[in-house]
Design brief:
With 325 residues, the protein is mainly α. It is 80% helix and 0% strand.
């Protein structure tokens, strides 16, 4: 039984993006499958995903934060400045040159841009022979800062588009990210050497991917009818903005590494860390805080969930191909 779970966990970790896409397509065709995922349920699922992240943190990771403050500071500043500003430029900024972007796309992409780095970015850094310790340090730092930075940035950049409950968002992020990560870290600290605990850790990625799939499925089920009424044009607009936002994040992140004369491994890591966001968090926040005022804002977040994993895998493969050549 355990070996079967382990194989499933490895398979889901390898093919996360394709599994998420498959769930999204199936849910679009049969939306009743995930109508149960909404509100508090979504928050609990995301909290569990963040708990699995905390279970991977060790004292060594915390020491990395203390031993490499300059690297982490540069990376985290890039994370919370480049992605929010790119999101604003692609949605609100283009309005100054006569291009109109639908409000749900504006709110959704800005929310994605203001979230911390994605957990899967650590896996991508490993695959592309990046600096994994630096990757974990950046993800940890941005996650710890998210309860403060994300609400403030969303209020600043999207406050004119939609009413933003910054305090409520702060408390929500605190409960569904920081608290579970802390509990996971403490569990790993006290029981990390226990064999049964190690076995549980090994199969956690499967449940984490399943949780993310449930969140995306719940979003699609919730906006299915409205998405149909908007038509293919709306979806193509969303995908085009998500693609540009993500790609520019990778590019500008790499440029920051070059600017500060980082090593090749660190350049790759900061590129992936800046470009890949915790879109699962953005999806839950959009569902919880903009369900009435801007319900379709969850669509850009849900599309980002799938696309960031796909693009991160592609980018990691390209970096590895360069090494092999």
């Amino acid at each position: 039984m355990y070996n079967t779970l382990l194989k499933i966990s490895r398979w889901l970790s390898t093919y996360t993006s394709w599994f998420i896409i498959a769930v999204a397509i199936v849910t679009y065709l049969v939306p009743s499958l995930f109508t149960w995922v909404h509100g508090t349920t979504s928050s609990c699922i995301l909290g569990f995903i963040m708990l699995t992240m905390g279970l991977t943190l060790t004292m060594q990771d915390i020491r990395v934060l203390a031993a490499r403050p300059w690297d982490i500071l540069i990376g985290t500043c890039a994370q919370f400045s480049l992605m929010p500003l790119i999101a604003w430029t692609l949605t609100v900024g283009v309005g100054y040159i006569g291009i109109t972007v639908p409000k749900p796309v504006i709110v959704g992409i800005i929310l994605v841009g203001c979230c911390p780095g994605g957990v899967s970015s650590n896996i991508m850094s490993f695959l592309c022979r990046g600096d994994v310790a630096f990757s974990v340090g950046m993800t940890t730092a941005s996650t710890l800062l998210a309860p403060i930075m994300t609400p403030l940035l969303v209020l600043w950049l999207a406050g004119e588009q939609v009413e933003v409950d910054a305090l409520g968002m702060f408390l929500n992020i605190l409960i569904v990210t920081l608290l579970p990560v802390t509990l996971g870290f403490l569990a790993n600290l006290f029981w990390g050497k226990d064999e049964s605990f190690k076995k549980a850790q090994a199969v956690m990625p499967a449940f984490s991917v399943l949780g993310l799939a449930c969140i995306v499925g719940g979003v699609i089920a919730g906006v299915h009818d409205k998405l149909l009424s908007e038509g293919i044009g709306f979806f193509l607009t969303v995908f085009a903005v998500v693609l540009c936002h993500n790609s520019l994040g990778y590019l500008t992140g790499y440029c920051v590494g070059k600017l500060f004369h980082f090593s090749k491994a660190k350049n790759r890591t900061i590129s992936i860390e800046v470009g890949m966001q915790n879109a699962g968090l953005a999806t839950v926040l959009a569902s919880n805080f903009f369900a009435i005022t801007c319900p379709l804002a969850v669509i850009p977040a849900a599309v980002s969930c799938a696309w960031h994993s796909i693009s991160g895998t592609i980018l990691a493969s390209c970096f590895r191909s360069r090494d092999e050549k």
